Amino acid sequence: MSLQAALAIAAKDVKIFFNDRRALLFTLAAPIVIATFFGFLSSGGGSGEKVKIPVLVVDEDGSSVSKSIFDGLLKDEALGCGASTETGAREAVRKGKATVGIIIPKGFGDASAKALFGGEKRPELILLYDPSHWGEMGMVRGLLTQHVMEAVSREAFNGAAGRKAIKDSLASVATSTTLKPEDKSALTKMLKSVANWQERLEATQGNESQEARGLGIPFDAKEEAVTSGSGVAYNGYAHSFAGMAIQFILFAAIDLGAGVLLERQRGLWKRLRSAPVSRFTLLVGKALSGAAISLFCLAGTFGFAMIFLKVRIHGSAIGFAAICLCSAVMAASFGLMIAALGRTQAATRGISALAVLMLAMLGGGWVPSFIFPAWMQRVTLIIPTRWAIDGLDGVTWRGLGLGYALQCAAVVLLFAVLFGLVALWRFRWEEE
Amino acid sequence: MLEGCGLNKSYGTLKAAEGISLSLVPGQILGLLGPNGAGKTTTVSMLAGLMAPDSGEVLVDGRPMKGDSDPAKAMIGLVPQELALVDELSAGDNLAFFGALYGMRGKKLREAVEKALGFVGLEERSKDRVSSFSGGMKRRLNLAASLLHDPPVLLLDEPTVGVDPQSRNAIFDNLGALKEQGKAMLYTTHYMEEAERLCDRIQIMDHGKTIAEGTLRDLSALLPATSRLLLELKERGGREWLPELLKLPGVQSASEEEGTLSVTLRDLPTGAPEVLAWLSSKGVAYTHMSSERAGLEEVFLALTGKGLRDS
Ligand SMILES: Nc1ncnc2c1ncn2[C@@H]1O[C@H](COP(=O)(O)OP(=O)(O)OP(=O)(O)O)[C@@H](O)[C@H]1O
Ligand SMILES: [Mg+2]
Hints:
The complex is a heterodimer of chains A (432) and B (311). Chain A has 16 helices and four strands. In chain A, helix 9 (236-266) packs across helix 15 (384-395). The mean pLDDT of chain A is 86. Chain A folds into two domains: 3-43 and 237-426, no CATH class; 53-203, abc type-2 transporter like fold, CATH 3.40.1710. By secondary structure, chain A is mostly helical. Chain A has helices at residues 3-19, 21-42, 64-75, 86-94, 108-116, 134-158, 160-174, 181-204, 236-266, 268-274, 279-308, 317-341, 345-362, 374-379, 384-395, 402-426; strands at 53-59, 79-83, 100-104, 126-129. In chain A, strand 1 (53-59), helix 3 and strand 2 (79-83) form a beta-alpha-beta unit. The longest helix of chain A is centred in the middle third of the chain and has 31 residues, at 236-266. Chain B has 311 residues and is of the alpha/beta class. Chain B is elongated and about 75 Å long. Chain B has two domains: 2-220, P-loop containing nucleotide triphosphate hydrolases (Rossmann fold, 3-Layer(aba) Sandwich); 227-293, Alpha-Beta Plaits, CATH 3.30.70. Chain B has a six-stranded mixed β-sheet, sandwiched between helices. A four-stranded antiparallel β-sheet of chain B has the order 2-1-4-5, with helices on one face. Chain B has a four-stranded antiparallel β-sheet with strand order 12-13-11-14. The chains are: A mainly alpha (432), B alpha/beta (311). Chain A binds chain B through residues 2, 4-5, 8-9, 12, 15-16, 19-20, 266-268, 270-279, 281, 429-432, and chain B through 11, 41-42, 45, 48-51, 67-74, 76, 78, 80-86, 88-89, 93, 97-98, 100-103, 105, 145. Bound molecules: adenosine-5'-triphosphate and magnesium ion (MG). Adenosine-5'-triphosphate is lined by residues 11, 14, 16, 34, 36-42, 81, 190 of chain B.
């Protein structure tokens, strides 16, 4: 193999690439713009500020229970809470201005305290919701349960409504005909102890020293996104840039493949073949230019992400370089394979663009592969882009080490060799 | 210098070259003449090592060419039928690239590029992109690109196709100079005027086979007819007498195209008066008359029964 000839071929293609503003724009600006957009979406606006779910509360009850439910919802950080009337809430939900409307009907305070100790029919809360935000509705329901539970139980154990509820419950237990005698005596005992507790509380009520507490969920969830280390937030840009950079180096590879077909059409390939240069040298020259252009694209897009969007390599930097290098080589040999299998450059471009989009999509370039169903996560392991993107995710925001990176890089390189072999095997060398 | 011996090449069932043998000699141009699809490009491709013949051999300086990276390939300069240039690069960059493929570099490469551009008269346009060139300029650059490594053998596949007369003459002058330098050249064309004007020897191909070869004079001797009489007729239409004219003893062939009657004659001194007398007896008037030596067109017509460009 003649290195000088291979380098001359590569240098020529790289020169053409940099002379061509359209190509430059497409390989660099396009992935940056698209990845920034996707990254922006997946980082929730990028500022780390959580989006509050807009909720409207209609308090038709006006009891101390309903007031304390409203207070609880108002203080909840996940919700953007406001008061409204029923018609106002319906209108707002229908227009999408509020995600959920909560109606607390008249008599809810009284009835709920009684329902806590069984017996009575449970009162209803009415939830109006926007069907396009089904997921958020689930979250609101959970939070609502927590706040209602706290408010109602506080009232039941401390408030006037609670005392009344206990009295009424004692009476209904005593006159009950359905309860067994043992159950009756056990229930009466329990209700009497609660009444006793209420009296004691009332006696000390004057100084208000004790904070009135109700029943709550017996734990506080402390949420922490597991990324490269505590204190480092998930950066949606890291993933979107990995996906788009890989997609666009494959697009650049199509240019390489179509370029070879065009050179053949133009007769330029004849001139290359008439020189005392081996076939292998010609392919290596082409592969070199493809890899160089891909590396440039990777460096450009990630450089932008690092400077402007705080994307960092929290894992192995050498691993990052290895994955980029292997991905660039893979893209180049993918381009050669296109040149080997394609006929005319126009037809080849169409088909291979479709193939690249599929590879990017299934490789997790558009939506992260961890969102895929389990079977799809397994199946897509046979796609090189999956390994490249997982690898880049790994060394950036997941903060994984060299071992993991080299494993991904090796698989990508294996695909590069595979594509290269197909290219060598199917390349049409005979010139008319 | 370069020899092809019994070259055969088929594309599927189509035999594009059958038993083609030819030999290039320093300081001489061999013309390979044939209509579209005769197999000229196929033959050139085998000679340049772009494709292996199905059977037969290509010898460079008496030795068979082995493989793609055989250094003997550097003895050959190929001018492809297509404009084999990188449109996106400047003329100078194009040539520098082709030179690098032959292992040239540095000062030697720069000088070779300058010399080749100067040779075809494009030194002023060295820095301009090829895409801004005219068709004729591209053709000249296409020739220059084959000269960088100063090969002793040149294979020129229709180097003047689609070119204006000015550029064509410039290229012809270049080829004359290269011949002077002692290059061994192969020139393919389907214009017999070009072959007649440039070539020392001519090989005529049709349907993949050599149907005649020799110097222009050798080939003319193949023809019973030696001269052609051309008459510009006064009136158009009404040529019912043409078949009768063909029956005259000295007349080889006769045809009429756009008011010009063309009659090939075995012998001009005896045939011409006979034809002219016959025409006046039929009342056919003409405004102008000339004669010319029968050329390759007639040779081809005589050998194949068809014109060079009406295949
Ligand atoms: N790659 C190919 N596959 C199949 N057939 C081919 C191929 N290349 C050439 N041919 C056929 O081989 C025959 C010879 O083609 P070739 O190009 O050698 O002719 P040519 O004399 O150079 O013609 P032209 O004057 O048009 O350049 C033609 O019939 C052509 O259709
Ligand atoms: Mg041809």
